[in-house]
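User: Hey, my collaborator sent me this sequence without any context and asked if I could get a structure. I don't really work with proteins. Can you help?
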Amino acid sequence: MKQASLDLSLSVKKTRKREFLDQMDKVVPWQALIELIAPYYPEGKKGRPPFSLATMLRTHFLQQWFTLSDPGMEEAFFDVPLYREFAQLQEFSRMPDESTILRFRHRLEKHKLADQILATVNDLLIARGLLLKTGTVVDATLIAAPSSTKNNDKARDPEMHSSQKGNQWHFGMKAHIGADAESGLVHTVRGTSGNVHDVLEGNSLLHGQEVDAYGMRVIKVSTNAPMPSLA
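Assistant: No problem. I've predicted the 3D structure and written it out in structure-token form, which is a compact way to encode the shape of the chain:
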């Protein structure tokens, strides 16, 4: 009697998230960005060895692409193996916690590296013909900040202000964004307090080579994650 063979071969479906990260792994100029940040990254001669710069940079990009707060990014590393793989983390190694992720972002802000990262990525996209720059869409996004004064300083963040949209008031800041009209890729980002009118930042979001410029309505988001470097 012929025994039935058991086929253990599994077809693994490639999800859209994996396809996206595979594409970003190839498109983002990782080595150029690492060289940009390396002079400002700790060497780890004292205390616990830091995570590799490549891991922290990839973590930073994951936050932007999937709109994750610092605690959300920490938890995602435990829940989503694909994120650990992309960030080049071993399965059973320690993971970056929210404080480590926050310190890395603050380091980028302190040395004004975010704009340079965006410029480096955009230069690559232009060289590959992916950023057409014939038209720009101008938009503004409201980013909520805690309005409570129940903190150590007993005060609100002095850089945040209230703004009105329709009949509602929102406390926080605005991200003014200029994006390529054809591809949707971001080429300019400016952050201001929430009470700065969109029109005042309009010209600063143009690169000067546009044939057309478009305006969009303000939308509101609430997130602890930093502003995106890519769209």
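In plain terms: Residues 6-10, 217-231 have pLDDT under 50 and may be disordered. You can pass these tokens on to your collaborator as they are.
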